[in-house]
Predict the 3D structure of the following.
Amino acid sequence: MEQKPSAPVEDPALVAAFEARIAAGESIEPKDWMPERYRKQLTRMMSQHAHSEIVGMLPEGNWITRAPSLRRKMSLIAKVQDEAGHGLYIYCGVETLGVDRHELVTQLLDGRAKYSSIFNYPTLSWADMGVIGWLVDGAAIVNQTVLAKASYGPYARAMIRICKEENFHKRQGYEICATLATGTPAQKAMVQDAVNRFWWPALMMFGPSDANSPNSAELLKWRVKRKTNDELRQRFVNLTVPQAAAIGLTLPDPDLHQDAETGDWVFGAIDWPEFFEVIAGNGPCNRERLAARNKAHDEGAWVRAAASAYAAKHDRRATEAA
Ligand SMILES: [Fe+2]
Ligand SMILES: [Fe+2]
């Protein structure tokens, strides 16, 4: 009978030393020894994050040509461009784990990779640009502020830089919402409708509830994550409820109420079957997003070919000179 090769057994002394470093709050750097599981989990998490930044450009990119003023157009272009930068930055971070970026991009394009569920919802009105900046970038900040203390150095450092830009995104989004909310009745109705559509998907961005999150325990143990999905979701709700009230918008949750003892804003049940459908590729825009990414990738083939030819020419000249 043929025997399957068994998984490599890691030296318990190395694992113990690694875990002691984590416990001491040290940061793990690319050349340091790390358990294969740690490398795998980080690769999964960071690549999903990078893909989310890139796919996240699509719903907003759709509105650049329809922005209502030059000022709004400029800030939307800048935001979408920032997201591209975040994606590239995090792809570089994943490469420090020994993964080739082309492999990651291929996984995204052929539908094997996951990215944030939120970007599979359509952007139907200009108000969606405000609400995405306010709620989606706002949720990202809550997540990423904690990831800036992650145990893997390159990821943590990327988050510090990215969070600064996300703060601008959130502010420009909230400003759009505030402007519409104090505008004409039609504008107010438009922004309220956008909030109604994006509120629950924004809560889903934090991932499954702790009871149903298979990777959380390991990620917390290795301090890749410092807080659970449910803790982060609660923090986001607590921050957002007063922001909605301040501009006279309501959140579409009849069960939302403040707990007198903890001060937390308690929210109603999340539609988890919907979340898992979107994650499985059956959300309203999954197919459209992947098709748009593939089209952009195909249309960019000449840029990659030209860049490779240019690099080869320089290599050749350098060799000849030597
Ligand atoms: Fe971003
Ligand atoms: Fe952003």
About this structure: The first strand starts at residue 257 and ends at 258. DSSP finds 13 helices and two strands in the chain. Residues 53, 83, 86, 162, 166 surround fe (ii) ion (ligand 1) (CB under 6 Å).
